[in-house]
Design a protein that fits this description.
The complex is a heterodimer of chains A (186) and B (440). Chain A folds into two domains: 90 residues, Rna Polymerase Sigma Factor, Chain: A (Orthogonal Bundle); 94 residues, Arc Repressor Mutant, subunit A (Orthogonal Bundle), CATH 1.10.10.10. Chain A is built from eight helices and no strands. Chain A starts with a helix and ends with a helix. Helices cover 69% and strands 0% of the residues of chain A. Chain B is an alpha+beta fold and 440 residues long. Chain B folds into two domains: 105 residues, no CATH class; 253 residues, Porin. In chain B, the strands form three sheets. In chain B, strands 5-6-7-12-13-15-16-17 form an eight-stranded antiparallel β-barrel. Chain B has a two-stranded antiparallel ribbon with strand order 1-2. A two-stranded antiparallel ribbon of chain B has the order 3-4. In chain B, strand 8 and strand 9 form a beta hairpin. Chain B is globular and about 85 Å long. The termini of chain B are far apart. At the A-B interface, helix 2, helix 3, helix 4, helix 5 and helix 6 of A face helix 1, helix 2 and helix 5 of B.
Amino acid sequence: MPDIINIIKGCLAGSRRDQELLYRRHAAKLYAVCLQYSGNDDEARDILQEGFIKIFENLIHYKNEGSFEGWMRRIVVNTALEKYRSKHNLYRVDDIDAIPEPDASPETDDYSGLEAGDLLMIIRDLPPKYRMVFNLYAIEGYSHKEISQMINISEGTSKSNLSRARIILQKKVSLYTGVNKKVISG
Amino acid sequence: MVNKEANIDLLFRNGLRDLEVLPPAEAWDNILPVIRRRQRPVILLRSAAVAAILLSISFLAYKWSREFSITPVNPFSAYENAVQPVDNPLQGRAARQLPFVVNNLTEQRTGYILAENRTVPVAASEENIPQPSVTYADVPENTISSDNIGIPVLASSATGLRYKTTVMDAGFRMPAETYYDIPAEKQKRWSVYAGASPDYYMRPGLNNTEVPDQIYQSEQSRISYSGGIGFAYKINRKLSIQSGIYYASVGNEVAGINSFAGFRPFDQTKGDHNFVVVTASGRIYTDNSDVFLRDISGDRVLTRYTNDVFDPVKSDLSYLSNSLYQNFSYLEMPFILRYKLIDKSIDFNLIGGLAYNFLVSNNVHTVIDGSRYNVGKTEGLNPILVSSSMGMGIEYNISDKFSLNLEPTFRYYLNPFGDMPGVKIHPYSFGVFSGLSFKF
């Protein structure tokens, strides 16, 4: 199996085979990132396509420093950000009160019943502004200052959005785990 | 509470870390055509450069092979009628090795090839044939020798002494060190030339903050061109210096900026600078009050007519395009040194030097139905750019005075295009200059 350096060299030389190899090797992981940042599958596919186009165009600038996968992920996240910025005025931030309360509010942090697919579904259900801030802060590790510059909001708004995102996620996770427990115990 | 928040963060961070979801099958089919299309200009230029080099080398090889392999033609044939036959008193093999005196004869023919009273061993044969056929036989053994001159001579299989022309045939080569024997001929030291070149500009990557990188990624150089006239002075046989004046046009596409026409009735301000677009080369200021601009993917457009203030679609403005085109024109004064590597009918030169580029015009336009629609100007451009260039020149001498030039040249700009804070782009370009020069 050719290593990533050889694949990159092949891509830079215009080798169609290497371009496809690079895509096949990393598409599934990057598509999961796209889904995480988008509310619907069409948008996720668009982010993936635009992200990969940028990856191929910018391969020449990759300096083989750090993880190549991390470099690709940053490009995809930036693409998702651009997409978000172009549309964020069209979104309406849901009222927290409109989110249904779980039947029970378990105080336990037992999330053992949750799988990655469930987490993805939960995070995608978040309103876009909350989802974006939560993803950037909790998953990517950006600070509120950086996030405020990235999506043109104040630091206070970023903190507030994160807090609301956490509340929603907590409630939904509790809902999931509560339902699971009921199913298991029932 | 804090722990709970951290827990929910960790839950998602760890839970989603290794998640993989197969993308739709058509995703790759949509990616491939785009990357192939965008690679095409570079591939075409590289192919053109390689083709030019291969063609030149092939042609050179062909010329050399012809010079070494074809049946030689007597260079003195024009004089044959004027040459008086010389009787050879000697016959047989011994005669072939005797020196033969060629008084004045060669001078008469060439005016400079041989000095007077030089002895020339001449091939001889037992038969007397008026037009001897010339072969390569015995070439190493027969050499016209004289002071400082060694001339390989072709032997004749037939009688050669009646015609001295046969002994000084196409095998004749004047060694380089005998050039001092050549009477001073007026050398053509000056030449003028005219030509043009398509150029492809590229820009290095940026290691900067998010905003400049976002700007950078939305911009793409367009194929540019340059052309002009110049002159060259030959310092010596190998080295020459050249200068001139060129006109160069450089283009840049800024993608993702929607432009609309028909904004003038809605423009309530007196100034024209309703919109400012931040680009890697500088800031575009609109000077056309009829144009409306909107950034579809970022915050590059600075205006008071933001999305929440004005909607071009609701106001029924005419959509023009989603790209802006920056055009920069420069007058270029190069100072180039040219070193001749191969001095044949096709010359190979190494070229290197500096050029001063003076900005003479800049404008920004968009395109509607193939026509240009003026938008404004880019401010903050460096008025003078200094570029260094390096290349290889191929010069084909059509005649003594005229020659064709083909020069693949790499150019690097020593100072940045513009003064955009945080963005210092030193572009580089590749072009293939082709032109015609006249020596005098």
